[in-house]
Amino acid sequence: MQPINVNMGKGRIEAFSDGVIAIIITIMVLEMKVPGHGHFQLVDLKDMWPVFISYVMSFVYVGIYWNNHHHMFHAVKSINGTVLWANLYLLFWLSVVPFVSAWMGENSFAAVWPVVMYGFVLLMNSIAYFILVKVLIKHEGKKSPLATAVGNDKKGKISTLLYVVGIACAWISTYLSFAFYVLVALMWLIPDRRIEKKLATDQSVN
Amino acid sequence: MQPINVNMGKGRIEAFSDGVIAIIITIMVLEMKVPGHGHFQLVDLKDMWPVFISYVMSFVYVGIYWNNHHHMFHAVKSINGTVLWANLYLLFWLSVVPFVSAWMGENSFAAVWPVVMYGFVLLMNSIAYFILVKVLIKHEGKKSPLATAVGNDKKGKISTLLYVVGIACAWISTYLSFAFYVLVALMWLIPDRRIEKKLATDQSVN
Amino acid sequence: MQPINVNMGKGRIEAFSDGVIAIIITIMVLEMKVPGHGHFQLVDLKDMWPVFISYVMSFVYVGIYWNNHHHMFHAVKSINGTVLWANLYLLFWLSVVPFVSAWMGENSFAAVWPVVMYGFVLLMNSIAYFILVKVLIKHEGKKSPLATAVGNDKKGKISTLLYVVGIACAWISTYLSFAFYVLVALMWLIPDRRIEKKLATDQSVN
Amino acid sequence: MQPINVNMGKGRIEAFSDGVIAIIITIMVLEMKVPGHGHFQLVDLKDMWPVFISYVMSFVYVGIYWNNHHHMFHAVKSINGTVLWANLYLLFWLSVVPFVSAWMGENSFAAVWPVVMYGFVLLMNSIAYFILVKVLIKHEGKKSPLATAVGNDKKGKISTLLYVVGIACAWISTYLSFAFYVLVALMWLIPDRRIEKKLATDQSVN
Q1: What is the ipTM of this complex?
Q2: How far, in Å, CA of A189 to CA of A191, rounded?
Q3: Which residue of C12, C21, C26 is the best one to mutate when testing the B interface, meaning the one whose CB has the most B CBs within 10 A?
Q4: Where exactly are the structural domains of chain A?
Q5: CA A140 vs CA A66, A79, A134, A149: distances in Å
Q6: Chain C residue with minimum CA distance to D63
Q7: B27–A contact, CB cutoff 8 A
Q8: Counts for chain D of helices (H) and strands (E), in that order
Q9: How confident is the model at residue B203 (pLDDT cuts 50, 70, 90)?
Q10: Do residue B20 and residue C22 have CB atoms under 8 angstroms apart?
Q11: pLDDT tens digits for range A100-127
């Protein structure tokens, strides 16, 4: 398949991505089932603790992807058909997060497979994001602000590695896996400085 | 009913369509019910396999419609009241996809009627899209970039035919039907080249 | 409470309304519960017929409101704080449509109270829309394009009357009530000509 | 963590917030479960009364946050990475409102803990909003229209105090707590005059 090089505005792909990510981040709260009628004690919320932690974690992860998506597209000038599909591929893996998040929470982070699958979906997301970056750079050109800002993408490569290590750890301790996932999240909580710095430099130069 | 020819900007119809399609593509994941508490083995996901395949398929189909919708409206200059309704008619049939998708997945693609109904809804979507194209061309004019780009719409006509054949096959083998649906999806995975090419030509001329 | 007369752009109120209406129109499909595993015959869909009809009806109604909202705001130049709340009041009553729609469908249009409540919510929506129009005209001025286009709002007044008659009919025959609701929908399916015509005249004059 | 001072347009953060808030405000209606088949009397809705009241209350609260968010960002010129996260933090606490709202409604406002948790989530929202305001003012500058408009934020401080008092009252009477929550809502129903007035003054000066 040849990449199509017609330039299209980025407005609508941003709007659609915003919509999908907004829904993903919000429907996860539906997994927190309200304790039934007559269960109105604080202790009735106790069992929900892991589900809540899982929700917070996934909220932060989806939030990170939205923030980075925002920063990346801020540096993008136009898109093409291939970008549309690479973006949809990322949205697909993001849409699976609520499912694995609920499975992991429901089993209180103690069961191996839910924790493994959660890590697997995070891994697929990081790969999908990597593909999107590559497709965008191919479209924008190797000397575009985006390309120079991304550079060798060390942070992305470390994340992918940490996910793999985290998944492998699940057979030793699921809590150790979880610690790795938290570590990657913390690493990304800071918005992508590479792009910001590059843009800041451009602004101060001009 | 006379078509109303007041020109309106296309911004809000795009935004509303983005919203509806974003929700449709995302709520389908809610059909993937998390295995209950205490079901934390990989084998517990095995029964979900058909539901997941069905989800992937429908995600791709709704994604195709969004991409083509995006491409088509990219070539559109303005809209009118009739376009609003033709667009809502398409959104209606897209909104039924999650329902038939879940029904088909829940019966593991083995039962005739769910597979037939899935094909029927795809067929109705292709007809609704066809109507939307016609209404847009009527509004934009037969010499508009959109009209020349769409041309005789061979791909659309082949799709409609393949859906009908696929539906009929369900009484022989539901997996054969499914193969036809996959075939049409593959055919459309490539964004609408007709419109892209036409626009590309226009851009290089100007 | 004094109306606040600071002018704000209409972009974000349109976007938020689009979002809410897109969600309302789409989550209604979730009321169509997939027949359980092992129910894969066409006959298994038979019981869903009233739910489907109810869905179509409500989809059309919410679609009408979106279309009219679109047309009306197309003629609006700016908004203020009072408009924000009048708009939220309309969105509130629209958000109740999925609930009464499901209740009516589940009881196959045969029970009095679900049909009455459905009509009541339609009535409240028409009143909320009426209030929004008044608030917008107060903000835009009595000689604004919007005001002259709306005129004496005969269609709106007839609708309100027909809802009341339709509700009252439920104690005679719920199907008669339903016929009235369909009648109003048909009346509105044609986008608001008053505003379109006025704008068309303005465009041809300029 | 150093705040990043690259200026980005506010369009996409507004669009994403609109999307999330639109979903939150709309999915709450899903908590109003339709009475089962064969329950079609008006009396069948009676038990839903507290759930409905809780829905109205939460709809108004989320509506207030959207309105104030709208007003505040109207006065904002650009954003940075820190603002993105402060905004996501607010959206997180807003996303928990449907959960506590359903819990409170299901127990008819009579149980202590659901009413306390509802107040707690409102309190966390008011704190998150306070943080967002601070972060925005730090970015925009102390002499920006936003900063002078917000002033000493008396209304925000009173709200926070009233939430705390309301929560404490739950051990005396949950209805008294509820009265406090209603009071704060009424206080905010009027859009943020400080910002509006400031902008109005600016407009009349220019």
Answers
A1: 0.87
A2: 6
A3: C26
A4: 11-205
A5: 21, 8, 10, 12
A6: C88
A7: yes
A8: 9, 0
A9: low
A10: yes
A11: 999 999 888 999 999 999 999 999 999 9
